[in-house]
């Protein structure tokens, strides 16, 4: 399996439920289309989950028809769906004042809302061995994401406003989870900065060693 094919299947496997992907994507499109204000990731998730946060109530978003329309999903599942739709070019993102990001429909996303078409012709077919491997790699991937959050907080003491993707992108973490480098020399091939490698490379290798 080529690396790009593996990463794409990894993302799809990580999504949650193939059968509901199409319907849930349409819910996200509708939520963005009917809202007359910029929605950050956290605000979009709160809207879809039906949580009456202070911001939701301030802007009266609980009256939107999409409020609570994905209450069946947890925060991570909705976030994975949003990121997958971004990767497919169906959502767009722009930076707001203060460094936050807002989400909206791309032209293709609007076209799918107005004229729904299959986003995946069919779910990828996995063998039992594939599923076991993906589950193991997803576990390591989530551990690496937790590590990245901790590392980002520590680095923010020197680099104010540093974002987690500037420490390591999800693509990099997925490659690491899949290939499991075992030496600092191997880890040097994954696009991590010299500072991250020097100060935190050993922590990454320890997580990999524990997962083996």
General description of the model:
By secondary structure, the chain is mainly alpha-helical. Helix content is 59%, strand content 6%. It has 11 helices and 3 strands. It has helices at 3-15, 21-34, 41-49, 54-58, 75-87, 107-114, 128-155, 164-167, 170-179, 184-187, 194-211, and strands at residues 39-40, 91-95, 101-105. A 3-stranded antiparallel beta sheet has the order 1-3-2. A hairpin with a 5-residue loop joins strand 2 and strand 3 (101-105). Helix 2 crosses helix 6. The longest helix is centred in the C-terminal third of the chain and has 28 residues, at 128-155. The radius of gyration is 19 Å and the shape is globular. The chain starts with a helix and ends with a helix. The mean pLDDT is 82. It catalyses: Couples ATP hydrolysis with the unwinding of duplex DNA by translocating in the 3'-5' direction. One of its GO terms (biological process) is DNA repair. It holds the Pfam family RQC. Residues 134-212 form the HRDC domain. This is DNA 3'-5' helicase.
Order of helices and strands: HHEHHHEEHHHHHH
Number of strands: 3
Biggest sheet strand line-up: 1-3-2
Given as residue ranges, the uncertain stretches (5+ residues, pLDDT < 50) are: none
Biggest pleated-sheet summary: 3 strands, antiparallel
Silhouette:
globular
Give the fraction of residues assigned to helices: 55-70%
As a whole number of angstroms, the C-alpha radius of gyration is 19 Å
How far the N terminus sits from the C terminus, by CA atoms, comes to: 21 Å
Average of pLDDT: 82
From the helix content, strand content and strand pairing, which structural class follows? Answer: mainly alpha
The tally of helices reads: 11
EC number: 5.6.2.4
Catalytic activity: Couples ATP hydrolysis with the unwinding of duplex DNA by translocating in the 3'-5' direction
Domain HRDC: 134-212
InterPro entries: HRDC-like_sf (IPR010997), HRDC_dom (IPR002121), HRDC_dom_sf (IPR044876), RQC_domain (IPR018982), WH-like_DNA-bd_sf (IPR036388), WH_DNA-bd_sf (IPR036390)
């Amino acid at each position: 399996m080529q690396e790009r094919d593996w990463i794409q299947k990894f993302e799809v496997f990580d999504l949650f439920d193939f059968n509901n992907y199409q319907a849930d994507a349409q819910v996200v499109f509708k939520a963005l289309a009917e809202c007359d204000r910029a929605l950050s990731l956290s605000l979009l998730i709160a809207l879809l989950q039906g949580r009456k946060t202070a911001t939701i109530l301030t802007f009266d978003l609980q009256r939107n028809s999409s409020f609570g329309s994905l209450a069946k999903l947890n925060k991570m599942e909705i976030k994975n769906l949003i990121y997958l739709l971004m990767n497919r070019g169906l959502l767009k993102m722009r930076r707001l004042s203060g460094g936050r990001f807002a989400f909206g429909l791309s032209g293709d996303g609007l076209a799918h809302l107005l004229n729904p078409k299959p986003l995946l012709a069919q779910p990828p077919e996995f063998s039992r061995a594939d599923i076991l491997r993906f589950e193991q790699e997803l576990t390591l991937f989530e551990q690496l994401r937790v590590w990245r959050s901790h590392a980002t907080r520590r680095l923010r003491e020197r680099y104010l406003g540093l974002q987690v993707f500037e420490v390591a992108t999800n693509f990099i973490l997925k490659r690491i989870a899949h290939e499991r480098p075992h030496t600092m020399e191997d880890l040097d091939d994954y696009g991590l900065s010299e500072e991250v490698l020097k100060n935190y490379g050993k922590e990454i290798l320890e997580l990999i060693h524990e997962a083996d």
